[in-house]
Every structure is written in C-alpha cells, then in structure tokens.
Amino acid sequence: xxxxxxxxxxxxxxxxxxxxxxxxxxxxxxxxxxxxxxxxxxxxxxxxxxxxxxxxxxxxxxxxxxxxxxxxxxxxxxxxxxxxxxxxxxxxxxxxxxxxxxxxxxxxxxxxxxxxxxxxxxxxxxxxxxxxxxxxxxxxxxxxxxxxxxxxxxxxxxxxxxxxxxxxxxxxxxxxxxxxxxxxxxxxxxxxxxxxxxxxxxxxxxxxxxxxxxxxxxxxxxxxxxxxxxxxxxxxxxxxxxxxxxxxxxxxxxxxxxxxxxxxxxxxxxxxxxxxxxxxxxxxxxxxxxxxxxxxxxxxxxxxxxxxxxxxxxxxxxxxxxxxxxxxxxxxxxxxxxxxxxxxxxxxxxxxxxxxxxxxxxxxxxxxxxxxxxxxxxxxxxxxxxxxxxxxxxxxxxxxxxxxxxxxxxxxxxxxxxxxxxxxxxxxxxxxxxxxxxxxxxxxxxxxxxxxxxxxxxxxxxxx
Length: 464
Ligand code: AMP
Ligand code: MG
Description:
This protein has helices spanning 5-8, 13-29, 150-156, 199-207, 245-256, 271-281, 301-307, 332-341, 363-381, 434-437; strands at residues 10-11, 42-46, 59-60, 70-71, 75-78, 88-96, 111-115, 127-130, 134-136, 164-167, 177-178, 189-191, 212-216, 220-226, 230-231, 242-243, 260-267, 286-290, 311-314, 316-317, 319-320, 326-330, 354-359, 392-396, 400-401, 407-415, 422-425, 442-446, 452-453, 458-462. The protein has 464 residues and is of the alpha/beta class. The strands form nine sheets. It has a six-stranded mixed β-sheet with strand order 8-5-7-6-10-9. A six-stranded mixed β-sheet has the order 17-14-18-23-22-19, sandwiched between helices. Strands 24-27-26-28-30 form a five-stranded mixed beta barrel. It is elongated, with a radius of gyration of 31 Å. 39% of the residues are buried. The structure holds adenosine monophosphate (AMP) and magnesium ion. Magnesium ion (MG) binds next to loops. The site of adenosine monophosphate has 21 residues, from helix 5.
C-alpha cells in the first residue's frame, strides 16, 4: 500500500469491495471508539428507540421457550396410543385454553381434553388432534345431526363442550405441540451483540422482558462537498452553479446505514481551505468527500490527502458509475496493529485513524459508491457484524448492450409480482441524471465481461 495515490491504482469492483470489508473487519475486531480511543461508547435506550442501532449486549432467554409444552393447534389433547386405530371415540374430560394452568385437567386412557392453540398440554396427553380431524358423535344444542364434515364440525363443535368426540385421523406422540424448552433453554444465547436491532430482534428482546437495551453509539460520518460550482441548497444558484444535493442524499444514506451525518458544507477547489475542512472531517469517525476525485485540473482531493500523508487503498474501481472512487486513511494501519497487540479493553496511545472515501461528485455515482463501499465501513463503526452485499435475481425484460471492462450498476426498474420479478434499464443521461432516479427502484448489475444480455436472461439486481 502506498501513500502515493497514483500507485494505489484502479482495482476491480470485487477487489474494491474486499478491501473495504477487510478494513471493516479490522475495525470491528478492535472495539475502540475512533474519536475517544476508548472502548466503543454505548447507550441504554427504550426498545423501540433503539431500532436501527447495533446491540452492545447479548439477548439471553430468561426462561425456557416455550415455558410449558404448548399446543400449536386447536383440537383435542390425546394419548397417541388411544387414536392409533381410527375412528376412535374419546370422552371429553374438560377444556383448556391459552392462559389456563396445565394442572386444571388431565387426560386418562380413553379420554381427551379440548385444547386451544397456545394452551399448555395437560398431563397424560402426548399429542394434539386437530379439530378438523374430529367429528362430534352426538347432537349438541347447536346441531341436529352429527357432522361427517370436518370443517363444519370445526365451525360448530366449540359451541357446547361435547361429551364424546370421534377422532378420524391418527396422530403420533409429540404431534401438534412444542415441548417445553424446545425453542431455547433458560440462559441460552438468543441474539449475540453486534446485530442490527430490527423488528424481529425487537420482538425477541421483548419476549425475554427487555424493555430497554444497550446499543452502540451511532458513528459520526462527516460529509464534505467540493467544487467551486457547488452552492448550498437554499442559495439561489447562478447560471453555471449546481446545488449541493449530494450532501443531502449522502446524509440520508448515512442515517439509513445507521450513522449520524455531520454536514460540513462546501470546500472550494483550492487546497488550503480543502485541507482545513478535511481536518475538520477527521474529527468524525469517517469522512465522505464528494467531488474532486476525477482527472480534472481542479480535482484536488487526492493531492491534498497525499500531502496529509494519507494511505490510499485504491484510487479507482472498474465500475460505472463511480469509477474515480477513492478509499484510504490517515494512520489506520498503525492503529489497527497497536490495538491488535493490546487486550481489547486496554486504552491505546496511538492516535485514531481517519478513514475517508472520495466519492465522485456526479449524484448517481455518489449514491452508488456509497452503497457499494461506504456502507460496510459505517456498519463496522456502528459495531455490526459485516453483511455480504447480496444481489437479487430477476429476468431481464429487454436486451441490454454495453462495452466490456466495467461492472455496471445502472438505474433500473424492477417490476412483476411475487416470483415473476422482471427488470429493465431506465432511460438516463448518465451519472449526473438524478431525475432518472425518481423513475427507478434498483440498479441492474452488468458484469464486466458481458457485451450483450438478452431479454429473458437472469440478471443481478442491487436494491438501493
Ligand atoms: P467532480 O466529481 O467534482 O468532477 O464533479 C462531477 C459532477 O458532479 C459535476 O458536474 C459537479 O457539478 C457535480 N457535483 C459535484 N459535487 C456535487 C454536489 N455536492 N451536489 C451535486 N452535484 C455535484
Ligand atoms: Mg469538482
């Protein structure tokens, strides 16, 4: 790895992604707060307020799950041996519903107990026969005849507790209920720390009684826009000026990725001020710079970072849009080495590393390169285990032709219902065309070796 940006080089898409994941993994292995050089800070929050944060504590089962043998069907708790041969006539000894204690009734030979989903299995029973598989053998006050029809019996059978029922279908011991502790034993690890708290994990935390959870602090991610032509969004732009839309789209992507965005404004295409603002950005956990990384005379970002002794892991990726993307750091390698040499709880005296991305200024390039490369770093800084970049598969609606050599992530529309997903390219004017994004909902991924992909072929799709 070189501090000379021209030597770091342009890498393939996969290599660029792999390099980011490698750094993300190192950061995660050293659970250190980049700004304080101390262990990563945490917050203890109300469960719902913690949604979208990363768990800093494990979630354990506080008791057996389920805490009792639990019926999973409405029907009759039986002894499987009593219904080996069907039809089998059984005496209904009682009824047990969800919330009742198992001690309220028992099943003896030749008997059954009417049971509802979620109720505990009474003693003596070792299976549940579904109500649909039973018939009522004598008229109740709701009916005049017996019901050979199972569905009708299910609909009507519950009105009055029958004295006898007839089981039409055998069950094996253990059928239609879950044993106590079958899902988890008391004290067992349900969710390890390092997982994003999503709705499913919130449900798990709630089920073990955690109305508050401890999560990691959100990483602060600085956004620095560059360009003499760029003006703030609420300013009136001159004829040749462009509004700083990237700082907003990036801030939104950062928040969606679990970070806290810190917008630093606009650096002119002038080294001194650019350097001052980069230094300010280094006060955050990660710095995203937009614009100024292309080959133009006034693309100064790499030059200024090189003067700051930055290391460049790559200075371009063979992708479209977003080819000029830059990833590097100031001081990361010394930091990671020092932390690895210490027990994780020990304070290190090495100054914190400053990771940065230089994202190309074209708005679609900025969004795509954030999605592909910046996201895993934010996840790691948030304390989350890395997640692979997953492409979905859909059928191509209309033929696509491109030049080979670049992995392309082209704005596209995915449509079609259920398993019939179809994707087609959107009309766009290139990576500056933000308006096109309003008509699209995904990126069509075209591998670098494909010149033509025919209609109906399976293709990869990346969700934004
Ligand atoms: P650059 O990467 O600096 O060469 O910029 C590429 C294109 O993106 C130019 O047309 C810029 O005007 C545009 N651009 C750069 N920065 C921004 C920004 N913050 N918001 C919107 N467009 C931008
Ligand atoms: Mg520029």
